[in-house]
Each structure stands twice: as structure tokens, then as C-alpha cells.
Amino acid sequence: MTKPKVLISDKMDPNAARIFEERGCDVDVITGKTPEELKSIIGEYDGLAIRSSTKVTAEILDAATNLKVIGRAGIGVDNVDIPAASSKGVVVMNTPFGNSITTAEHAIALMMALARQIPEANARTKAGEWPKSAFMGVEVTGKTLGLIGAGNIGAIVASRALGLKMKVVAYDPFLTPERAIEIGVEKVDLEQLLTRADFITLHTPLTDETRNILSRERLEKTKPGVRIVNCARGGLIDEAALKDMLESGHVAGAALDVFLEEPAKDSPLFGAPNFICTPHLGASTTEAQVNVALQVAEQMADYLVNGGVTNALNMPSLSAEEAPKLKPYMALAENLGSLVGQLAHGELPKISIETEGHAAELNQKPIVGAVLAGLMKRYSQSVNMVNAPFMAKERGIEVREIRNEREGTFQTLIRVTVATSQGNRSVAGTLFGNSDPRLVEIFGIGIEAELSGEMLYIVNQDVPGFIGRVGALMGEYDINIGTFHLGRRASGDEAIILLSVDQKIPQNVIDKACALDGVKVVRALSF
Ligand SMILES: NC(=O)C1=CN([C@@H]2O[C@H](COP(=O)(O)OP(=O)(O)OC[C@H]3O[C@@H](n4cnc5c(N)ncnc54)[C@H](O)[C@@H]3O)[C@@H](O)[C@H]2O)C=CC1
Ligand SMILES: O=C(O)C(=O)COP(=O)(O)O
């Protein structure tokens, strides 16, 4: 058997190459390639091990004809086009915990550096100025630290800040009250955080929801004299607004480890007062780099040599024997979890996963894991079937499994029910021909639909002519409809439309759909 070939394309601890070789892979370490150069060599490789520098775009993936796995030695995977990788059958893995302590420590270091203006004082002292009277710092003791994002890294930052005798408030829509107590923070909404925090630190992934979370408007609401630290991702802060507010003095200091454009070689922020930065060093300690290098190589080699899947972001983990039977069920389960995750509002303290008929005879763990992975996608990019149940537990979500081996209307069925503040909401699906996942019920209304790609969900009053109006609206904006599914409680009662479209639906089209007569709810969904 030929050995799998792995390319390490970013600077990585040498332990990674050693592990690959010990586990029977050939490995090349070639860093610093341009996208064109990477494209020209990627076709040779079965595995690609990266950090944040290599951008794995759809174009690179098109050229990666042998690629089976991408391993991210770190946490954030916003430099990988995961949908493109999935559509090519390439597993994307990360190492969700290996550098969290290190990154949290960097955030604390930057906060202290800001409080005492250490970088500038250091530079001017070394220049022979002895500028003792030019600097007057602030204490952090007794000050309020505002955490935006209280996941793994945020929680570690909180523990360190509490040790520094700070008060910690946290904004994280998915932080449960129990978890907030456990990590010693006060859960607040974003507005409160902005007005109360003396220091703000960001620890969310970069997603459509978090992009520009510290916008100009929000920065203007912060407490005068606030100091801001970002060790998460560049796109979270409006950099131009931050520069203006440093210049006006409203923001007393800002420390960025990450930038919208990296490498950041001539950011306008560089000239702003009280601005300090590091070149994406959050994860750069010996300890963290050994952790993530060992872990990524172990995981990738396991997959390439034995087919084992750990910490995959786009594929459920399962054993070779169970795989063929369970695979379509897991696709169905993940879509049902994702659907309730996208439709239900607010916190979801309880979820029940019910299997009926054939589905009840199978190993429930992967099915439950897949439902939770689908649901948790809205909370974290690092979610997969293995860690989703732990994350659900950590967030205090009560998970119930119910098996009902007798067949009902369907030979096989998975039903997912979540408790929301408006009561229980449930969706159900089956397999057609033992292989094709289909949604068959949504919030008590029968419907038959394939959940895939971009979709539009509308709840409306069942009246003649409504379907035509929706079709006309899509036509008006040149949005091609792939499939159109309907369901209703009874004639003239509440009805549901679920349509698949060939492109992401713009917000103005959603707004127009909301304004149609008789519409109650409109949501764009992505699968
Ligand atoms: N500077 C660096 O070198 C490093 C940066 N990172 C960045 O740090 C990020 C966080 O890492 P972890 O804590 O391990 O991830 P995590 O997934 O454990 O935590 C992220 C938290 O953000 C919360 N969140 C999601 N959407 C939110 C929203 N709209 N508003 C507020 N909170 C929201 C989630 O509920 C979750 O609790 C990573 O995604 C990565 O981008 C990670 C490691 C090193
Ligand atoms: O793990 C992460 O998300 C990071 O941002 C670390 O990035 P790096 O591996 O140092 O390029």
C-alpha cells in the first residue's frame, strides 16, 4: 500500500512531522507558498496540515484532487472554506483546546500592557529618554472586564481576571446562567457590557453574527476611557472606527493581536495613540504549539491510516462497521438539529431526540451526536459529533433520548423536540429508500422536504394566491427556486412554505417577504 502523503504548509512544531512519519505517512514541510504555488503542488497530497496563514479556498480545493483531510493545528478555521471542503469529501479537523490557555494568557498580557503603556514606555526608555513623567497607568484591581464570548478561551480569561481581582461581566447569548455562575461572571446583554466595562476583550469565532460586533455605533456606546483587547479575529472590530475613537480619546487604549487583513503591514491603526499590537501571536507559546502539533498529526494520521475521525468539523465520527448504515441517519439527524437551532429563539434548555421504527434499532450515540452537532453549530465553529454532547452538557442543556422500536406512520423516524420560552417545538424526518433524508413534519405541520443548501422558510395564513406572490418575489430578484414545499394545519389555517434556492437570500428580499400580506415568520436557512 502506498503511504499517505501529507503537506505541512505553515510553520509548525517539528513534533508534527515526527508523528506523521511514525504513523506511516510521508511528510513534506513547505511553508510560505503563494496561493498559486500551493495550487500547483496540492494535487500530490492526501493531507494538509495548516495554521492560520494558509488560506484553503475553493480554488485550492479544486486543485486538491487527492486531498482527504485538512488538519488545523489550532482553533479558528475561518481560513478554510468548509462548505467547499465538505462538498469535495475532505474532512476538516481542528484542535479545539490545545492553545486556549496560551491565548487567554496573551489577552491578559495585552490588557496589562495597555493598563501601564508598557510597549511605549519600553521603547522610549531604550531610546535614552527616561520619560518617567510621561506615563500614568491605571490599576486593573476593582475594574470591570467585559468578555464578549465566554467559551473555552473566554472562561480561562475570566478565571485569570478574577485572580487579578477584577469584576467580570460576559456577553454570550449561549452562556447559560448556571455556567455563568460556574465561571464566576455576571451574564449581561451587549448594551450593558458596553456601558459598564473598563476593559473589553473579545473571544468569539468570526461568523456572520459576530462580524463587526464592535461596530462604530457600538464603540460609541462604550464607557469613555475604555481599553479594548482583541485576541480572537480581526473582523470583529471596525478598525477605522477604533482609530477615530483612539484619536478622540474616547477609547483610552486598544491592543490587537489580529487584524482584518493579515499580515497587517501598514494598518492606519499603527499611527493611532495608545495602540499596541502583536502579529497574531495569541497561540505562539512552546507549550501550545507542541500541544496542537502533536494533536493535529495524531488525528490526521489516524484518519489517513485507519479511517478514525476525531474533532472533525464537517463529518460525524464513527467506526468502520457502523458507518454505511448510520451515515444517512446522521445526515438527517444533523439537519434536524440544525433546523431547530436555526428556527427556535433564545436559549434551549432541553432537547429530546426520539427514534421510531428502524432508527430505534441503531446505535443512538451517533444520531444524538449528529443532532447536537447540528444544533450547536449556531454557538461555535469548533463543534463536532464528539464534542457536541460535552458542549451541550457544559451549557446545561438537558438531552433526552427516547427509543420507540414500534413503527408509527413511518417505518423509520427521528423526531427532535426543543423546549423554548414559547413551549415545545418539534421537527421530524425519515429516510426514503433507506438512504434519502426527508423532513416530514415541522412544528406540528406535515411537509415533505429535502433540507439542503440555502432555503427560505415562511409561515403564513393559508390564502389563495399567496404561493404566486412568493414565486413572483423570488423572480423579481432573480432568485432561482430549486424546490418548493408546502404544508398546512387545515384549509385557511397556518401554512408553511419551505423552498430551496440557488443562492444566499439577501436581507432586502427577506424584508420584502415579511411584508407580504398574511406572513407571520420568514427565515433564511442554510444547510
Ligand atoms: N489570536 C490567536 O492566536 C487565537 C485566536 N483564537 C480565536 O478565538 C476564538 C474563540 O476560541 P474558543 O474560546 O476556543 O472558542 P469557543 O467556541 O469555545 O467559544 C466561542 C464562544 O463565542 C460565543 N459566541 C458565538 N456567537 C456569539 C455572539 N454572536 N456573541 C457573543 N458570543 C458568541 C459562543 O457561544 C462560545 O461560547 C476562536 O474562534 C479563534 O478565532 C483562538 C486561538 C488562538
Ligand atoms: O488557533 C487559532 O484560532 C489561532 O488563531 C492561532 O493561529 P496560528 O496557529 O498561530 O496561526
From TrEMBL:
<protein>
    <recommendedName>
        <fullName>D-3-phosphoglycerate dehydrogenase</fullName>
        <ecNumber>1.1.1.95</ecNumber>
    </recommendedName>
</protein>
<dbReference type="GO" id="GO:0004617">
    <property type="term" value="F:phosphoglycerate dehydrogenase activity"/>
</dbReference>
<feature type="domain" description="D-isomer specific 2-hydroxyacid dehydrogenase NAD-binding">
    <location>
        <begin position="108"/>
        <end position="282"/>
    </location>
</feature>
<dbReference type="Pfam" id="PF19304">
    <property type="entry name" value="PGDH_inter"/>
</dbReference>
<dbReference type="Pfam" id="PF02826">
    <property type="entry name" value="2-Hacid_dh_C"/>
</dbReference>
<dbReference type="InterPro" id="IPR029753">
    <property type="entry name" value="D-isomer_DH_CS"/>
</dbReference>
<comment type="pathway">
    <text>Amino-acid biosynthesis; L-serine biosynthesis; L-serine from 3-phospho-D-glycerate: step 1/3.</text>
</comment>
<dbReference type="Pfam" id="PF00389">
    <property type="entry name" value="2-Hacid_dh"/>
</dbReference>
<dbReference type="InterPro" id="IPR045865">
    <property type="entry name" value="ACT-like_dom_sf"/>
</dbReference>
<dbReference type="GO" id="GO:0006564">
    <property type="term" value="P:L-serine biosynthetic process"/>
</dbReference>
<dbReference type="InterPro" id="IPR006236">
    <property type="entry name" value="PGDH"/>
</dbReference>
<comment type="similarity">
    <text>Belongs to the D-isomer specific 2-hydroxyacid dehydrogenase family.</text>
</comment>
<keyword id="KW-0560">Oxidoreductase</keyword>
<keyword id="KW-0520">NAD</keyword>
<feature type="domain" description="D-isomer specific 2-hydroxyacid dehydrogenase catalytic">
    <location>
        <begin position="6"/>
        <end position="314"/>
    </location>
</feature>
<dbReference type="InterPro" id="IPR006140">
    <property type="entry name" value="D-isomer_DH_NAD-bd"/>
</dbReference>
<keyword id="KW-0718">Serine biosynthesis</keyword>
<dbReference type="InterPro" id="IPR029009">
    <property type="entry name" value="ASB_dom_sf"/>
</dbReference>
<dbReference type="InterPro" id="IPR036291">
    <property type="entry name" value="NAD(P)-bd_dom_sf"/>
</dbReference>
<dbReference type="InterPro" id="IPR006139">
    <property type="entry name" value="D-isomer_2_OHA_DH_cat_dom"/>
</dbReference>
<feature type="domain" description="D-3-phosphoglycerate dehydrogenase ASB">
    <location>
        <begin position="325"/>
        <end position="442"/>
    </location>
</feature>
<dbReference type="GO" id="GO:0051287">
    <property type="term" value="F:NAD binding"/>
</dbReference>
<dbReference type="InterPro" id="IPR045626">
    <property type="entry name" value="PGDH_ASB_dom"/>
</dbReference>
<keyword id="KW-0028">Amino-acid biosynthesis</keyword>
